[in-house]
Amino acid sequence: MPLARILLVEDDQKLALLVQQYLESANFLVKIEGDGNKAIEEIARFKPDLIILDIMLPGKDGLTICKEIRPDFIGPILMLTARNEDFDQVLGLEFGADDYVIKPAEPRVLLARIKALLRRGKLTKIETAKSLTFGSLVIDSASRDVWLEKKKVLLSTHEFELLLIIASQAGHILSRDYLFKKLYNREYDGLDRTMDVRISQLRKKLGDNAEDAYRIKTIWGKGYLFVADAW
To answer: Which CATH entry fits the domain spanning 131-226: 3.90.1280.10, 3.30.300.20, 1.10.10.10, 3.20.20.10?
Structure first.
């Protein structure tokens, strides 16, 4: 039985076939869609567990697709880009992607990222209290819901996991190295801005002040601190 269903949205047919063959050899079921205009329809039909989404596509581009599907698609989204530019990477994360890989991607690296994303998605329990409450902020680890001032906060899978990790260790400074290992199961390379973007998005969604954060503080040179008594 396939481990998971993966939809690869990639218009480079040669590359797509190579990726498909490699992932299928790892026991995944992989379907290819090369037209950005047809991707959303294919997602609804194929019902993938994970989507690999190229940024540069004919029709709708990958960023647009990611933004449109994220409210309804709860599985991981892995962005694939040929350009090593912060703009693409940051925007993809802001639009709801869970991770990104720069083309040409080393097959073993791509496979490792996919397995890590799927593994995170399957985790239903984290060693923490069933419900964490910090003033008007309530984090329910069982239902995976977050409420702020009695209003539900919509978070991506990784945003929720990151919030749960830092909130369950409120009052402790957590380094980027620790958070990368905990959340992505890989070492921080000193350049990757994924964690900064995740923290920034959490601050926005939790009503934190980006200029003078009071709930999730940046401790320069050390990491991030979730403030236990922030309301």
So the answer is: 1.10.10.10
